[in-house]
Amino acid sequence: MRALFRGTLRRATALLAVAALAGVPTFLPAQAKVATKQEQATKAFEQLTEHMQKLQTALKNTDPEKAKVIGIGSKFIQEKAIPNKMKEVKALLDQERWDDSIDTCKAVIKDLNKLIDLLLKGDSRIENLLKEIDRLEKFKERVQKLIQDQKNEKDSSARAEALEQQVKKLEKAKQDLDNLIKDQKDLRDQTNQQGLAADPKKATDMAKNEGDLKERAKRLAEDLKQVEDTAKDLSAKPAAGKPGDAKPGDAKPGEPKPGDSKPGDGQPGAGSPSPSAGAGAAGGASQDMGKAQNKLQDNKPESSLEDMEKAIKKLEKAKDEVEKALDEAKRELLKLPFEQLSKKQDQTKVETDNLSKDMEKSESDGNKDGENKGPTPGKQNVQQAVPKQKSAAGSLKEYKPGKAKQDQQDAQDKLEQAKKALDEALAQLRQQLQDEVLRSLEERFGAMLAKQRKISAKTRILEAQKKESLTASGQTSKALLSRANELATGEFELASEAHGSLKLLEEDGTTAVFPDFVIELRDDLKKVGRRLQDAKTGKASQAMQKEIEDMLQMLIDALRQQIEQNEQKGEP
């Protein structure tokens, strides 16, 4: 059946060569001869069509893939009305309308080239693989977009959560400062009562208490430094929505409304440094407390009072800065458009749900075409992301960014898993495509080599006959010229097949090394074909044919080696 199929292809390429010859009067200037050639082309095409119909019927049960390919070709012939166009060329030639006939003939040649391309696919497995790759690639693109959208929405929730944590940390720092200021003042008053010197045990106790206050101030300074660093990070990241996006009424009950903020406040710290949160002042207070501790250890309570006063002032300064930072953080938190963030997350959920439905629908569409695609890779992961996205949208509506962020991370993870599944499936399909292309090319080049060897042998015989039958004037007989022209047609047919092989190689980017050789092969076939048209069958033409045979053998060997390597690696 493979031989029958390739026979159909050879008939189509031969027909293309005849049609091209008929449509160029400069090669055969006699009107009658050109018209005869066109009539031959028309009859040959009718025979080709009839042969395709019979072959399609014969292959329907034994090789449905190839029968489908031939069916596609037959449908193309009907749609393009090729037989009518060929008859039109004949009529134009009879009327000596050379320009019109050439234009129409070029259109026919274009259609025939397309027909050859359809038949050159060999069987629909390569076409099906390309369709499946395209289907999954489109799904992968949508998944990638959803991953980016989900990441952006998670980042917005993370920013909102960070602002919430910032408010809580500043509120705690304010309370810690109040307690620290009170305890330092109490210790200052106690120290003030001691005079120039105190009971040694009392001095030791006060020094210990001052040391504890120093450590508390030091830890508080470190905590406030982290708060300041977080504020800088938040200032560097734009808010999720435009200024003014938040609507009055979006704030939590009992809190100031987002509309209370001034226009342009939607991005915290944009264009200006974030305010201090008292870390420096608290750190300075800790140092003053350390000095006071040392003086108390030396039983110099009166001398330590000045350092304690300095510490209290710095703590009060730190408290003032914390209060300002706290007010700013609360304003920024209230300005976050939670309603908009919720709607945006809900939109991503809708797009994710639509993707999962499209994935499922594409499976049933494939079954209608007689194909069994099976479950779309990653579909289940996409479906599992939807409830997480729905939960996240609800949490944002309830002003719970921390809960929303976790659900969004889970949804993003599911989408990442879907992308991974699609990547793995695409890698396997591309390997299968390469395998199909390699085997199809091996078969094609093998058939081309066999045909080239026959043409080469006939060329050598024809050269010998030419030497024996030269006329008295030294001219080659018309019969031998006709045979040389037939051999030229055979070379042009092989050039067309080489060109068709390039299209296969374009579909499979992994065999990137082959196209250059095939282009060289095609060009060499055209060159030797033109030489044979001029009845140049001597050593130069024969040497070129030998090079073509060697090139084809080299390509076949390289393809077999690649196929064997794939099989040894355990690839499809």
Polypeptide structure, described:
The protein has 15 helices and no strands. The chain has helices spanning 2-22, 31-62, 64-80, 82-94, 98-120, 124-192, 200-236, 279-297, 301-335, 338-368, 379-397, 401-468, 478-507, 514-533, 539-568. Among the domains are: 1-122, Four Helix Bundle (Hemerythrin (Met), subunit A); 159-335, Four Helix Bundle (Hemerythrin (Met), subunit A), CATH 1.20.120; 343-419. The chain is an all-alpha fold and 572 residues long. The protein is 81% helix and 0% strand. Helix 3 (64-80) packs antiparallel against helix 5 (98-120) and helix 4 (82-94) packs antiparallel against helix 5 (98-120).
Helix and strand topology:
Layout: H1 2-22, H2 31-62, H3 64-80, H4 82-94, H5 98-120, H6 124-192, H7 200-236, H8 279-297, H9 301-335, H10 338-368, H11 379-397, H12 401-468, H13 478-507, H14 514-533, H15 539-568
Helix pairs in contact: 1-2, 1-5, 1-13, 2-3, 2-4, 3-5, 4-5, 6-7, 6-9, 6-10, 6-12, 7-8, 8-9, 10-11, 11-12, 12-13, 12-15, 13-14, 14-15
Using DSSP, what is the number of strands?
A: 0
Order of helices and strands: HHHHHHHHHHHHHHH
Strand content: under 5%
Which fold name corresponds to the CATH topology of the domain at 159-335? Four Helix Bundle (Hemerythrin (Met), subunit A)
Average pLDDT, rounded to a whole number, is: 81
Low-confidence stretches: 1-6, 13-30, 240-273
* Span between termini: 24 Å
CATH architectural arrangement of the domain at 159-335: Up-down Bundle
Quick overview of this protein structure:
This protein is mainly alpha-helical.
